[in-house]
Every structure is written in C-alpha cells, then in structure tokens.
C-alpha cells in the first residue's frame, strides 16, 4: 500500500537530514594524529619549494657573549651569567629521560656557561633523582615542590561537567584528555611556573623536558643574547594544534578582549593567530584561531611577560572559564595566543641555530656545528605530519628573525 504523500515527504526530509549529519561527522577531523585521507604519502603541505633549514645558516647577530677565561666558571662569584635558569617540571619516574636531555644540553651548551638547573615536581623529588641529576652538571641544581594551590584542580571546576567533557573529547580522540594530571600540568605551565616563590628573583628561563635532544654546539650565552637584543620569547618548533582540544579558547579570548582592547600590541602577530590558510579545518573547529602555536616543550623566555598585568589578567580569565579542564587547553596555545596578541612581534625570536627534537618534530639547521640530525628535517613521523608545520605562516606574517 502506498504511503500518503505528507508521510513520504517527511521520510525524504528525514533521510536527507540524516545523510547531511553523517557527512558532517566524517568531515570533521577528531584528534591530533588522525591520518587525513586526502593526503598522498610524501606530499608536503608547504608553501615553500624547500625547507629554509636546508639553507646554510649560522649564529644570530652580534653582540654574542662568549666564554673568556673563567667568566662562566661554575664557582665564579662574579661570573658573566645573568639572572636565569634552565627549568624543568618532571616526575621522579622520568629520571633516565631527564638525564638524557641534560646530557645533550650540557654537551652542546651548558658545560660552557654553567647556568643552574631548577627542577619542579608536584611531589617531593627522591634522593636518587637529586643525586643523579646534580651529578650530570657542574652547575648548581635546585629542587622544588609545586604548592598545592598551584597544582590542585581549582574549587570552581564542576567535576560532573569535567567528567562529561572528558567522555565527549575522548570520543573525539583528544590525546591525554582523560589524564587529570595532564590538565594540571598544562595549567601550571600556562600560569604558575613564573609565580613559584623560588623563581621570584629569576628573569629568564629555558624550559627543558625529559627525553628531548639537542644537536648543535651553541657557543654564546643564549640568555644574555635575549637581554642584549631585547627579546621576550624564543621558539624553535611552530605547529598547528589539535583543534578539538581548544575549540573555545579563541572565543573566550575574544570575550576577554571586549574589555581589554588596549592590551593588544600595535605591532602584534595577531595575523599569524588568525591565518587559517594552511589548515582551514582547524580554524573552523577552533572558531577563528589557526591553532598555530610555539611548541612550548622548548621555550627560552623572559618571565616578566608571564608576570605582567596583561598576562595575569588574561590567564585569570581563562582559568576561571574552566577550559583547562572542560577542554584540554595546552600551555603552548595559551602562551602563543598571549604572545601573539600582547607582545611586539619583533621581540619573538626563532632560534633556528638550536638543533632540537621532541618526538615527533625537529628543528635542524644546515650548520657545521650540528651533529646527529638531518638538516631541514621537520619530522621523522608519518608523512602527513608535515602539514602540522606552521612556520610558513609565521614567516609570512613576521619573518625569520
Ligand atoms: N612532576 C610532574 N611532571 C609532569 C606531570 N605531567 C607532566 N609532567 C611534565 O610536564 C612536561 C610535559 O609533559 P609531557 O607528558 O611530556 O607532555 P607532552 O610533551 O605533551 O607529551 P609527550 O608527547 O608524551 O611528551 C614534561 O616535562 C613532564 O615531565 C606530573 O603529573 N607531574
Ligand atoms: Mg613531552
């Protein structure tokens, strides 16, 4: 028996709606590491005809402060060192991986300059951790616990909402979403490391994670270079983020800016933050943010920026919104959005000469001072990871300084 016409129309509309929703679900790209079906293996999502790190390069411009006599000796009370530290948040269980990172950075740079290492942990460091890391350097080593008020999940987080959000974003394959400590770590690196009382008198820091590699001899005082050249922040890997992990970060930022328009620097890198030309899908899911960010497992920075009124207001706003827990905002996009809006872009520096790897990405220059990495290699992971490279967007809007 034929169905009445209105029922047939209703059925047709329902089927169309179902097909539309089905297509929408499969168009979105959940998760950070999902293989895009449209990218032939080996194809590079790049705007240049070769990676700029294939071009010969050397040290950044003078002045460069070097070792002369005992001016950087570890026990020199009047050394040329400035107010700076190498800094690492690390777990006791990552001791071997930390020693690997230390060996690389000591070999390539710090055995010459002897800047102190400062380690942070949410629980006390073991004696073994302290003993073996302090034996891995001639420089001073310091060990501090993060105060509970900087680490614990804050009182305003609704734990029911948090658990619901975890289920939702885990289903969208957001990496580490289900690990509370990962959210706590991202929040600490975003807003609290610069506020630790032990760093009250420290201005510059170099962030180092366990299990990273440094490949190139660096023969100048990097912290002094930042100071002499009036730089706020140095990066060396610049990539897109998992858009699902930060889908409301940009809307929340725009809400903040409604009252604080004057915080945006007149020479900001905002165009980099909003240029979705390489990953339009990311910009769509992140509601207007390209997701380009400095990969913050490597950072050389001036903590005055993280302590400035602008940044404290911004961080507090983000923190109160709950996005460190209801989504999985990383310290890398949070730092990058703040730098891209509030800082003069000429104060942000690409350390192209510091050869580096944190799996799965590299920064490897064509420079005779480097050993152990392939010049111009961006990743040794799957070919599709090439599309995560955001340097072309940075170079387009800011340049290569
Ligand atoms: N003490 C402590 N350190 C942590 C904790 N979670 C992360 N960290 C440290 O924070 C930094 C970032 O954490 P990772 O697990 O490396 O995060 P990631 O780089 O996004 O992830 P990977 O790609 O797995 O390296 C590392 O230096 C970790 O050692 C934690 O719960 N306690
Ligand atoms: Mg890591």
From TrEMBL:
The answer to whether UniProt assigns keyword Transferase to this entry is yes
Indicate what this protein is called per its UniProt record: Glycosyltransferase family 15 protein
Keywords in alphabetical order: Glycosyltransferase, Transferase
What GO biological process, any one, is recorded here? Answer: cell wall mannoprotein biosynthetic process
Q: Segment Disordered: which positions?
A: 47-75
Which GO-annotated molecular functions does the record name?
alpha-1,2-mannosyltransferase activity
A Gene Ontology cellular component where this protein is annotated is: Golgi apparatus
KW Thylakoid (keyword) present: no
Indicate the family of this protein: Belongs to the glycosyltransferase 15 family.
Organism from which the protein derives: Lentithecium fluviatile CBS 122367
